[in-house]
Amino acid sequence: MKHETANSQHLKVFTTVVETGSFSRAATQLDCTQSVVSYTIASLESYLGVSLFERTRRRPVLTQVGRAILAEARNIEMKMLDLRARTSEFKLGVETELSVVVDVMFPSAHLTDVLVRFARSFPNVALNIRIEALGGVLQMILDKSCEIGVSGVIHPWPDTVEVAILGSAELVPVASPRHPLANVTGTVSMSELRNHTQLVLSDRCAITKNQDFGVYATHTWRIADLTTKHDLLRTGFGWGTMPRDKVSKDLETGALVILNLGSMRSISYALHMVTRIEEAHGPAADWLAKELAIPE
Q1: What are the HTH lysR-type domain coordinates in residue numbering (predicted)?
Q2: Same domain, yes or no, for 124 and 168?
Q3: Contacts with 163 (C-beta within 8 Å, 6 or more apart), sequence order
Q4: Distance separating the N- and C-terminal Cα atoms of the chain
Q5: What confidence category does residue 2 fall into, taking pLDDT thresholds of 50, 70 and 90?
Q6: Each residue of 264-276: pLDDT tens digit?
Q7: What is the mean pLDDT of residues 128-139?
Q8: Nearest-10 crossing angle of helices 244-253, 108-121
Q9: Model confidence at 51, in pLDDT bands (50, 70, 90)?
Q10: What is the largest CA-CA distance in the chain?
């Protein structure tokens, strides 16, 4: 018998004796004879050079050293169980690590829910999450920084990626109630929109360089961070579109209001699953790709 395997077996017998409170009950639980249990404990004591149980008692009572070693033995057992679980996952092809990039417009509550369930389903997979805007998602797929991407529409899609629709996020045009556009009676006209600074989400990606998405005003501020855009809107400077879920509390409290732009009062922002065609995915990636689909 190999030395490492014997140590693992020794610790299992030791903890079982402690848990059952009896050599005979430990033998029954381990499906072996009491003599095997006694021999294994004696071998472990000999190997460690200490006494684990007091020999003057009828029932097995741990010595002081035995109590100290028990905690370590249980810790090693837990690590062995975790190692076996990981080994089983590896045999099934489960990834050890997965990198995902998600469009900043993706509904936050749904993303959080999926990630929590992913952690439960794949506790041993290290997950790297990136949040990007516009072409930044596609860029990270193309340069192989991430295996899975959730992106808005890109025209045209490169031939090297596979694209599948996930659903859409709702964007709404908002401004502070102090902003002049918030106080327009009736529908805000396009000419009125053009006269006020629009805050536009942008990125530094070459893929979407010089491309505009939903820009109507002649004067714009381009901001690469959605949080900064949100903060500026709340101050009363400029107007712009935001994911409804990210401004829902502001709409409830009146910190922001939805501008009446007629047919543009609500905008559907299509989101797609993007992967490299040549990329082979394991069970964790397949699970994530399926669960990220946005409920209607």
Answers
A1: 7-63
A2: yes
A3: 157, 272, 273, 274
A4: 59
A5: very low
A6: 888 899 999 999 9
A7: 90
A8: 130
A9: confident
A10: 96
Domain endpoint, select from 91, 109, 142: 91
Residues 75 and 177 occupy one common structural domain: no
| β-pairing verdict for 257-258 and 267-276 | unpaired
Mean pLDDT over each residue of the chain, to the nearest integer = 85
Query: By residue range, what is the domain housing residue 280?
Result: 94-296
Long-range contacts of 158-165 (CB under 8 A, 24+ apart): 160/276, 160/277, 160/278, 161/274, 161/275, 161/276, 161/277, 162/274, 162/275, 162/276, 162/277, 163/272, 163/273, 163/274, 164/272, 164/273, 164/289, 165/270, 165/271, 165/272, 165/273
**pLDDT at residue number 94:** 67
Query: What is the CATH classification number for the domain harbouring 8?
Result: 1.10.10.10
Residue in the structure block whose two tokens are 């021999």? 39
User: 63: buried, middle or exposed (CB in 10 Å: 19+, 13-18, 0-12)?
Assistant: middle
For residue 13, what are the CA distances in angstroms to 25, 82, 169?
11, 19, 56
Are 260 and 181 in contact, with CB atoms under 8 Å apart?
no
Are 8 and 142 within one domain? no
Q: Identify whether residues 43 and 111 lie together within a single domain.
A: no
pLDDT for 213 equals 66
CA 261 – CA 174 distance, rounded (Å): 10
Closest residue by Cα to residue 222 from 101, 131, 133: 133
